[in-house]
């Protein structure tokens, strides 16, 4: 039977997909999706309105599917450079488990489904922000910025910063300063997070021709910029408490996390240019992930506890 199938493929020119459900799930970039969903939940819960649980569930599922759609479109377009990097070579498209056309259709269908569901069942402003986020990540970042400028992560980071704002808009039908601050925290976190990765994966990016900051400006300049961003992100993380959107407890927790971020970035700044092990950069990369999850978790707990005490 297998031989007959192979002969038919040769005769007709039709390639039958060998993709499994797990391959399509991998196209969604589940780890990135988890972060998107979590920050969107924080934005939705932080909004000063009561949201029907069913509507909230629809909103979060739509945002999750939209994030997955962005990942699939990114993997479709980036298959050529993904194949050249050890970190991404085993992804479904460059490994051949999913055909490029399948990934493209999958991403487009999920994009339309997520935006229309969010708009029809929840809120059109939130749906518009989701549509813009998908477009920004798939087209502006993936197709343009990523391959043409070392500022790709700086500008492209906006795509990953929108979820809490989308969650807020899904709950309120509007955008507020509080949601903009949540956006800013992620936006400013993105460059030092990815540049830390780029420091110890610069050879990968060099083979793929991606102009990441270490490959274009050098390690020393990248280390200085990482430290500069860490000095900015630390106080921005405390802004919700300073402006009265969160409690003193959140402010103390955010300040402690910010000090940790600056300390790890300082270790990267002091790292020698010829350091082949890149332990400080790897430590900062790991800590940056913890930082973002922790600061949004504290914000979520602070909001829920604050409302319980007030009610």
UniProtKB/TrEMBL annotation:
Location in or out of the cell: Cell membrane
Membrane topology label: Multi-pass membrane protein
Q: Where are the transmembrane segments?
A: 32-49, 55-77, 98-118, 124-145, 152-171, 177-200, 226-243, 249-269, 281-301
Q: What is its main location?
A: membrane
State the top-level EC class. transferase
Keyword Lyase included in the entry's annotation:
no
Q: Which GO terms describe its biological process?
A: heme O biosynthetic process
Alphabetized CDD domains for the sequence: PT_UbiA_Cox10 (cd13957)
The protein's Enzyme Commission number: 2.5.1.141
**Purpose:** Converts heme B (protoheme IX) to heme O by substitution of the vinyl group on carbon 2 of heme B porphyrin ring with a hydroxyethyl farnesyl side group.
- The protein here is known as Protoheme IX farnesyltransferase
């Amino acid at each position: 039977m297998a031989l007959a199938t192979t002969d038919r493929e040769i005769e007709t020119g039709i390639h039958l997909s060998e993709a499994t459900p797990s391959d399509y799930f991998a196209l969604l970039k589940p780890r990135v999706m988890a972060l998107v969903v979590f920050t969107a939940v924080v934005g939705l819960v932080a909004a000063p309105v009561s949201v029907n649980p069913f509507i909230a569930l629809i909103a979060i599922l739509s945002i999750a599917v939209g994030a997955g759609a962005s990942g699939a479109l990114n993997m479709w377009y980036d298959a050529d450079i993904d194949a050249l990097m050890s970190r991404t070579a085993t992804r479904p498209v460059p490994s051949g488990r999913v055909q490029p056309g399948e990934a493209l259709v999958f991403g487009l269908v999920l994009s339309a489904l997520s935006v229309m569901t969010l708009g029809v069942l929840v809120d059109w402003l939130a749906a518009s922000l989701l549509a813009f986020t998908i477009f920004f990540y798939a087209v502006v970042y993936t197709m343009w910025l990523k391959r043409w400028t070392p500022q790709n992560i700086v500008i492209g980071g906006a795509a990953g910063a929108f979820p809490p704002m989308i969650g807020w808009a899904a709950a309120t039908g509007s955008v507020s300063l509080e949601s903009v601050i949540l956006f800013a925290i992620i936006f400013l976190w993105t460059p030092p997070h990815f540049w830390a990765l780029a420091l110890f994966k610069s050879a990968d990016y060099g083979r793929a021709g991606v102009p990441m900051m270490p490959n274009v400006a050098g390690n020393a300049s990248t280390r200085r910029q990482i430290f500069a961003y860490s000095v900015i992100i630390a106080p921005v993380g405390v802004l919700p408490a300073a402006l009265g959107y969160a409690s003193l407890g959140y402010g103390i927790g955010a300040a402690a996390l910010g000090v940790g971020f600056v300390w790890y970035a300082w270790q990267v700044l002091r790292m020698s240019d010829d350091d082949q092990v890149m332990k400080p950069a790897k430590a900062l990369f790991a800590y940056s992930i913890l930082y973002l999850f922790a600061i949004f978790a504290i914000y979520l707990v602070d909001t829920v506890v604050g409302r319980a005490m007030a009610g």
